[in-house]
């Protein structure tokens, strides 16, 4: 089979590909430990002056265009890791944008620099490291050219300084933070700078409009990496957490102190094993609430640290997104909002030659009717050539029942960034079957996606089939028993006329989504259009949408308590008007209104937001609201979701954040206050307070009755002998 796949790939390649040189940068070696680099954002050590300098080129909006935002970079390599320094010239440094010092904050409106590393050499997976001009860090795992998760937190350092000529960034990435093959002398590397107020991007490698930073196949090469110290490959991370809980209605109180331990050990040159004993997630941020007016469950992202390390190795299928996740780690250790403690967890991550490996097993304690369980998943991906990957994913176990359950699936991905010269083109297919104690029905699923994601034209076609008994207990499938097809096209010109220079880019979009049952009967369809959608040169956004829809209800649908939509066919038209100020501004505002027909009546959804950030990014306040007014033949309803977020930062290593959320359906007010202190990169301290209140009054003034309170602390320290 491998020879057939290679032959098919080689038949396609000559028609689509052309060769190109990759830029190369030689890292300057620090061969003695007395050449100390202090990560302070100054680049004033002698070694920096000896390092080769590379310049970044404008990537957008004018590839290779002249710009006053000159950017240069240097790289030093020492046994302990990589040092990266960037100098960012700015003719108006007072206008440098900083909106948060919180780790992994949204930096879309900030002046930032970033680098990506492909340490495995597979041209697909890698690491992202980004900092803003205030020194706030953001890091993530890349699993494909359009797949980036920012939930992973590695151990690394960064600092910045600002002066009359711009700003300087200095980063240190320890070699022990990365998984890599010590036999390789070169890694894939790309560098990027973003100037928020100008919506300007500069790039080292592949400075073209169609190139995405996450596309590892477009990287340059960083050479001279021999001799990186992996230590013994071991790390020990003890943690101490404590928690006190109080339930006000029942007057129940309890406290606990829990010791945890993570042990990391090498299993080969590129393989790592991680054993977690009593993993604890006391520091995890609260979920953001959502209003759900659909018949289907919503997807909430994974935020627990243990499951995020190596998460990019478990990605399955192209373009499945929230349609189907055969393995979804949030099914482990959680049941209906209740925490099921984990006794232990084991992970194996890495590569063996052209084969990438991800395996995860956990021992979950029982709770109520849910027995104790041992649950596991494994993911293998074989790189047949630089463009073609064949993969397998399997799961075993049922987190909420003793009945057996499993899933086995295979996927195929072909990707190039050189189609028709320099365009992105992807083709992906998948197939799988559920097993175990399942209801009678079709246990199979399969699908195909063709994607042409480029700057001027973005074209997509996909088709997926999900059996009605395709029910992996460790997965997420909101609509089993359906066939789903989608066609989407976006024409995205960048006007060149002088009279239209205020428009950075326009987006003319159409998307048709059709969902049928397994017999071909239509269950729903949507036809989304964007006749007016543009972003200004400063980043302000204006959009108008028209969306005809159809829904067939085969069973009554209780959209909110007391309002039941009966069985029937419903055809309606929805409209949207959206206005958003540029995220680079200190004062921000946004407003989105959906209105039109809805299940035989009318529905208006109004989402508003406003925010303010101090000049240095040390204080941030954001308020948002969603109000939905439904007027249906079967009843009227009003749904509200209100939230306020506040951040107070003394530095990028000491940040206090708070969030309050109120939702009218449950009449529940929830709040969380979270202090994160990182005195050293390998040491973190968390203090977290959560409290909920209930408003028992459906009408009239709000009266808040305390419900639950949880106070938590956690100290986590990593030792690397």
Features:
disordered N terminus; 721 residues; 44 strands; nine-stranded mixed β-sheet; 3 domains; 24-stranded antiparallel β-barrel; 3 helices; mainly beta; 3% helix; Immunoglobulin-like
Verbal overview:
A hairpin with a 2-residue loop joins strand 37 (587-598) and strand 38 (601-613). Mean pLDDT is 90; it is low at 1-20. The protein folds into three domains: 2-223, Sandwich (Immunoglobulin-like), CATH 2.60.40; 299-474, no CATH class; 479-616 and 629-642. The protein has a 24-stranded antiparallel β-barrel. Strands 1, 4, 7, 8, 9, 10, 13, 14 and 15 form a nine-stranded mixed beta sheet that branches. Strands 2, 3, 5, 6, 11 and 12 form a six-stranded mixed beta sheet that branches. It is mainly beta. It contains three helices and 44 strands.
SSE layout:
Blueprint: H1 2-16, E1 24-26, E2 28-29, H2 46-50, E3 54-55, E4 57-60, E5 71-78, E6 81-89, E7 112-118, E8 126-132, E9 137-144, E10 147-149, E11 157-163, E12 166-174, E13 186-195, E14 200-203, E15 220-223, E16 235-247, E17 252-266, E18 271-277, H3 305-308, E19 334-335, E20 338-339, E21 342-352, E22 355-364, E23 373-383, E24 388-396, E25 405-419, E26 423-436, E27 444-453, E28 457-466, E29 482-491, E30 503-506, E31 508-517, E32 522-536, E33 541-553, E34 557-560, E35 563-565, E36 568-580, E37 587-598, E38 601-613, E39 619-632, E40 635-651, E41 654-663, E42 668-680, E43 683-694, E44 705-717
Parallel strand pairs: 1-15, 2-5
Antiparallel strand pairs: 3-5, 4-14, 5-6, 6-12, 7-8, 7-13, 8-9, 9-10, 11-12, 13-14, 13-15, 16-17, 16-44, 17-18, 18-21, 19-20, 21-22, 22-23, 23-24, 24-25, 25-26, 26-27, 27-28, 28-29, 29-31, 30-32, 31-32, 32-33, 33-36, 34-35, 36-37, 37-38, 38-39, 39-40, 40-41, 41-42, 42-43, 43-44
């Amino acid at each position: 089979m491998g020879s057939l796949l290679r032959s098919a790939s080689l038949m396609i390649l000559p028609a689509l590909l052309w060769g190109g040189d990759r830029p190369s940068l030689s890292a300057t070696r620090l061969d003695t430990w007395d050449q100390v680099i202090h990560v302070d954002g100054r680049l004033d050590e002698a070694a920096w002056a000896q390092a080769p300098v590379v310049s970044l080129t404008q990537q957008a909006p004018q590839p290779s265009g002249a710009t006053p935002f000159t950017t240069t970079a240097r790289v030093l390599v020492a046994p302990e890791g990589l040092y990266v320094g960037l100098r960012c010239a700015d003719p108006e440094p007072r206008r440098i944008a900083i909106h948060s010092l919180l780790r992994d904050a949204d930096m879309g409106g900030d002046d930032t620099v970033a680098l990506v590393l492909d340490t495995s050499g597979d041209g697909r997976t890698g690491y992202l490291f980004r900092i803003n001009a205030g020194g706030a860090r953001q890091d993530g795992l890349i699993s494909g050219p359009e797949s980036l998760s920012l939930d992973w937190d590695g151990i690394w350092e960064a600092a910045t300084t600002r002066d009359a000529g711009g700003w300087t960034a200095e980063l240190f990435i320890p070699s022990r933070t990365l998984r890599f093959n010590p036999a390789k002398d070169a890694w894939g590397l790309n560098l990027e700078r973003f100037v928020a107020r100008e919506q300007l991007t500069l790039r080292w490698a592949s400075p073209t409009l169609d190139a995405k930073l996450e596309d590892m196949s477009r990287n340059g090469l960083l050479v001279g990496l021999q001799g990186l110290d992996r230590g013994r490959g071991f790390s020990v991370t003890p943690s101490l957490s404590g928690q006190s809980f109080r339930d006000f209605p029942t007057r129940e109180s309890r406290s606990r102190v829990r010791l945890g331990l993570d042990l990391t050990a090498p299993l080969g040159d590129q393989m790592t094993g991680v054993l977690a004993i009593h993993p604890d997630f006391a520091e995890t941020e609260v979920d953001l609430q959502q209003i759900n007016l659909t018949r289907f469950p919503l997807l909430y992202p994974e935020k627990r640290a243990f499951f995020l390390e190596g998460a990019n190795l478990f990605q399955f299928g192209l373009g499945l997104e929230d349609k189907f996740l055969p393995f979804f780690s949030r099914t482990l250790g959680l049941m209906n909002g209740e925490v099921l403690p984990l006794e232990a967890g084991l992970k194996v991550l890495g590569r063996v030659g052209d084969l990438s490996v991800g395996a995860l097993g956990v021992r979950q304690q029982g709770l109520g009717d849910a027995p104790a369980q041992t649950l596991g998943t494994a993911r293998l991906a074989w790189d047949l050539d630089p463009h073609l990957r064949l993969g397998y994913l399997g799961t075993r176990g049922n987190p909420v029942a003793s009945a057996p359950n499993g899933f086995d699936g295979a996927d195929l991905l072909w990707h190039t960034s050189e189609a028709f010269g320099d365009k992105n083109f992807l083709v992906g297919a998948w197939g799988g079957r559920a097993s175990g104690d399942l209801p009678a029905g079709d246990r199979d699923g399969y699908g195909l996606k063709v994607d042409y994601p480029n700057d001027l034209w973005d074209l997509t076609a996909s088709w997926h089939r999900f059996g009605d008994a395709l029910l992996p207990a460790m997965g997420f499938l909101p609509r089993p028993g359906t066939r789903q097809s989608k066609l989407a096209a976006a024409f995205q010109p960048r006007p060149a006329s002088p009279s239209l220079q205020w428009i950075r880019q326009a987006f003319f979009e159409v998307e048709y989504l059709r969902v049928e049952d397994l017999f071909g009967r239509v269950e729903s369809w949507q036809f989304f259009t964007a006749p007016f959608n543009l972003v200004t040169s400063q980043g302000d956004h204006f959009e108008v949408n028209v969306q005809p829809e159809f829904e067939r209800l085969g069973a009554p649908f209780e959209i909110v308590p007391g309002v039941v939509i009966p069985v029937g066919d419903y055809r309606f038209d929805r409209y949207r008007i959206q206005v958003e100020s540029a995220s680079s501004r200190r004062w921000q505002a946004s407003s989105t209104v959906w209105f039109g027909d809805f299940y035989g009546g009318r529905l208006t959804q109004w989402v508003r937001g406003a925010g303010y950030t101090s000049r240095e990014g040390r204080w941030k306040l954001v308020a948002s609201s969603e109000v939905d007014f439904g007027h249906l033949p079967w009843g009227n309803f009003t749904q509200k979701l209100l939230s306020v977020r506040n951040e107070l930062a003394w530095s990028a290593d000491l940040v206090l954040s708070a969030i309050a959320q109120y939702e009218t359906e449950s009449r529940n007010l929830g709040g969380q206050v979270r202090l994160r202190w990182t005195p050293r990169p390998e040491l973190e301290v968390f203090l977290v307070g959560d409290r909920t209140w209930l408003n028992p009054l459906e009408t009239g003034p709000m009266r808040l009755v305390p419900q639950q309170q949880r106070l938590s602390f956690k100290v986590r320290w990593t030792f690397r002998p």
